[in-house]
Write a structure and sequence with these properties.
The structure holds two protein chains of two kinds. By secondary structure, chain A is of the alpha/beta class. Helix content of chain A is 42%, strand content 11%. In chain A, the strands form two sheets. Chain A has a seven-stranded parallel beta sheet, with helices on both faces. Chain A has a two-stranded antiparallel sheet with strand order 6-7. The radius of gyration of chain A is 21 Å and the shape is globular. A seven-stranded mixed beta sheet of chain B has the order 3-2-4-5-7-6-12, with helices on both faces. A five-stranded mixed beta sheet of chain B has the order 9-11-10-13-14, with helices on both faces. Chain B has two domains: 184 residues, Rossmann fold (3-Layer(aba) Sandwich); 128 residues, Rossmann fold. Chain B is of the alpha/beta class. Chain B starts with 19 loop residues before the first strand and ends with a helix. The chains are: A alpha/beta, B alpha/beta. At the A-B interface, helix 13 of A face helix 3, strand 14, helix 12 and helix 13 of B. Bound molecules: thiamine diphosphate.
Chain lengths: 360, 347
């Protein structure tokens, strides 16, 4: 089946008031986490590249909230919000950004490489498009193992022009794999707009090249994202059919904290997008269904508290042990395979690699 | 924008013109690109974010407005596609200069470079060449983590048909990039993240090129030879100063500049004089540049060596994020110094 539909105008269904308040709290948590991450990065307590998802919260939370516990999540490097939405505690994410032992990757991955096996979050990948083939392989394994689960694989609009995208979608369709590719179209890959990068800028249509279902959704509408993702994941689990879901949203900040984000777009453009802010939208909706300002204020205070405590946990967490530098490079039991490289090693391998737990 | 920023009282040439100026490594590369774009219509630049965004590391800043979108071409994130397009264009006589944002992403285009570009001249009996230049930075630091902190130049330098250059200072950055653009074969120019901002004196003569296949003795010394390239040269020069001050050891530093072709002669002459060699690189030593050097040195200088050849490189792990682990893994000055002392039997 090949189809391409545009569901941006379909209305959302109503959900419980409490649930909505909880969603608002999560949206706000992600937003405030990013704001704090930026502050900590500028204070040089976070290093490396730090990509913020402010503006994209409704897509992130909407999609993740539609996943079942058994579904698998794979993302690119802009992954703080995904980790939080999937339930990774803020302090474990913040500790990872600080490079500390309590980080969700033990301080080894940093901002781009969050990971949490217990929540079936399979990373946080830094090479554009690199996550696509391996996510497709996770779906292959789900199928071979007969598991009633699917993969949700996030990618950016910049990733659709790399070979790995074409190869992955073709395999997924050819082999009927349970995977939904969540394409976050935030208008830009670094400083390159979608129109300057893609010959067919209606990206969801490109699924048709693989006889795959492609669909576009308003990524600033939490309900619509959740509905569409839920429907496509169910189809993937039950019918083993892959799909492409393109969510239209916008990133407010620069590509990474180091990019001011103004060389390739205007302040006016950003301001216009801020008017459609997913959080503001959600807030007015809540007020409309009778939630009080006081309730919203209480949410805001809880979020602020959570973020502050995440920072203090991260600060207090110890650095990883230098003696364990090479721990986990190979599977347990591998140390003896390397044993005969030991004598006479001349450039620090002895201290840095072989005596520090490689393959133990 | 001005290509030369912060120049200070430049030395005068015979015609009264400044013959050199102080500029950063990044500015020296930009000047080379500007001069070559202006000199030869066949030269064009392409890569991700090289135009409107002015380059991920700002090497190409100002070039789009000066030369236009046909000569300074923004590409989608399609490394294999656009590097390969450079191969084809070069076969038809163009002189493409392809920027790959970092060497980590060059792996995606490796097939076009290694299986295709490198083969063209030989495989078709010399009927056509491939005058393609690829510029890309290697290197680590700043906690960029495992997927963004690699130095693969040794892999590419093992491929017949490719030339691989790795400047360590602004003058060579300009001279070698220009030499690469004027060369008739595919040339990979390895730049380096930590030294983009380093400053140095750069010749302004638009016809000044640094010859391919010639190493430089970056510091003279008599007790031990440090052989390095790219950022490892910068580290080695700093270590040489420390050794002189703290231990009275005079280290000679040979800056390879060109990895393939490799100037074995300059390396061998130095080691024959000092009788000791420490090979330093940013990448993993196993099967790397230092492995190649050790083999060449023992072959050329077997009777002159007073100690085994030492090697210093990145710890053989996917580079972790945490700052303390990163520092422990990189070939920092302490580790280089320790290797020198070991070579001299002092540790
Ligand atoms: C193969 C590869 N090429 C280049 C890069 C450098 N890079 C990192 S992110 C990025 C832009 C990606 O944009 P997009 O896919 O739209 O995702 P977004 O950043 O908007 O989330 C680029 C060019 C990379 N990481 N991998």
């Amino acid at each position: 089946m090949s189809s391409a539909t545009d569901s941006t105008s379909k209305p959302g269904v109503s959900v419980e008031r409490e649930q909505r308040l909880a969603s608002y709290e999560q949206l706000l948590t992600i937003r405030q986490f990013e704001t704090e991450a930026e502050r900590q990065y500028k204070a040089a307590r976070i290093g490396g590249y730090c990509h913020l998802s402010s503006g994209q919260e409704a897509t992130t939370l909407g999609a993740v909230s539609a996943m079942s516990e058994d579904d698998l999540l794979v993302t690119g490097y802009r992954c703080h919000g995904f980790a939080i939405a999937r339930g990774v505690p803020c302090e474990r994410v913040m500790a990872e950004l600080f490079g500390r032992r309590d980080g969700c990757a033990g301080g080894r991955g940093g901002s781009m490489h969050l990971f949490d096996l217990s929540r079936r979050f399979y990373g946080g990948w830094g090479i554009v498009g690199g996550q696509l083939p391996l996510a497709t392989g996770l779906a292959l394994a789900l199928k071979r193992q007969g598991r009633a689960a699917a993969v949700l694989c996030e990618l950016g609009d910049g990733a659709v022009n790399i070979g790995a995208w074409h190869e992955s979608l073709n395999l997924a369709s050819l082999w009927r794999l349970p995977i939904v590719y969540l394409l976050i179209n935030n208008d830009f890959g670094m400083g390159t707009s979608v129109e300057r990068a893609s010959a067919e800028p209606a990206l969801y249509r490109r699924a048709a090249a693989f006889r795959m279902h492609g669909e576009r959704v308003d990524g600033n509408d939490l309900d619509r994202v959740a509905q569409a993702t839920g429907r496509l994941l169910a189809r993937a689990r039950e019918e083993r059919l892959p799909a492409l879901l393109e969510a239209l949203t916008y990133r407010y900040r620069g590509h990474s904290v180091a990019d001011a984000g103004l060389a390739y777009r205007t302040r006016e453009e950003i301001a216009a997008h801020l008017k459609a802010d997913p959080l503001e939208r959600f807030r007015s909706m809540l007020l409309g269904i009778g939630v009080s300002e006081q309730e919203l204020q209480a949410v805001a205070e809880r979020v602020q508290q959570r973020i502050a405590s995440a920072v203090s946990v991260a600060e207090q967490s110890p650095e990883p042990d230098v003696a364990g530098l090479a721990r986990g490079v190979y599977a347990p039991g591998s140390a003896k395979q390397f044993a005969r490289m030991l004598p006479g090693s001349a450039f620090g391998e002895r201290e840095l690699v072989f005596e520090s737990g490689l393959g133990e | 924008m001005s290509a030369v920023e912060g120049s200070s009282h430049p030395p005068q040439g015979p015609d009264g013109q400044a013959s050199s100026a102080v500029m950063s490594y990044r500015e020296a590369l930009r000047l080379a690109l500007r001069e070559e774009l202006a000199r030869d219509e066949r030269v064009f630049v392409m890569g991700e974010e090289v135009g409107l965004f002015e380059g991920s590391y700002k090497v190409t800043a100002g070039l789009l407005s000066e030369f236009g979108a046909d000569r300074v071409r923004d590409t989608p994130i399609s490394e294999e596609g656009f590097l390969g397009a450079g191969v084809g264009a070069a076969m038809l006589g163009e002189r493409p200069v392809v920027e790959i944002m970092t060497i980590n992403f060059l792996l995606i285009a490796m097939d076009q470079l290694v299986n295709h570009a490198a083969k063209i001249r030989a495989m078709f009996g010399g009927q056509v060449g491939c005058p393609l230049v690829i510029r890309t930075p290697n290197g680590a630091g700043n906690q960029l983590t495992a997927q963004h902190s690699q130095s693969f130049e040794g892999w590419f330098a093992s491929v017949p048909g490719l030339k691989v250059l790795a400047p360590a200072n602004p003058a060579d950055a300009k001279g070698l990039l220009k030499a690469a653009i004027r060369d008739d074969d595919p040339v990979l120019v390895i730049e380096n993240l930590p030294i983009y901002k380093e400053k140095g004196e750069v010749p302004l003569d638009p016809d000044h090129v640094t010859p391919i296949g010639r190493a430089a003795v970056a510091r003279e010394g008599s007790d031990v030879t440090l052989v390095a390239h790219s950022f490892a040269t910068v580290r080695s020069l700093a270590v040489a100063e420390r050794l002189a001050q703290r231990h009275g050891i005079q280290a000679e530093v040979v800056d390879l500049r060109s990895l393939r072709p490799l100037d074995v002669q300059t390396v061998a002459e130095s080691v024959s004089k000092t009788n000791r060699a420490v090979c330093v690189e940013e990448g993993w030593p196993s099967y790397g540049v230092s492995a190649e050097l050790a083999a060449r040195i023992q072959n050329a200088c077997f009777d002159d060596l007073d100690a085994p050849v030492e090697r210093v490189g990145m710890a053989e792990v996917p580079l972790p994020y945490a700052k303390n682990l990163e520092l422990a893994a990189l070939p920092g000055e302490e580790r280089i110094e320790a290797a020198v002392l070991h070579s001299l039997g002092q540790a």
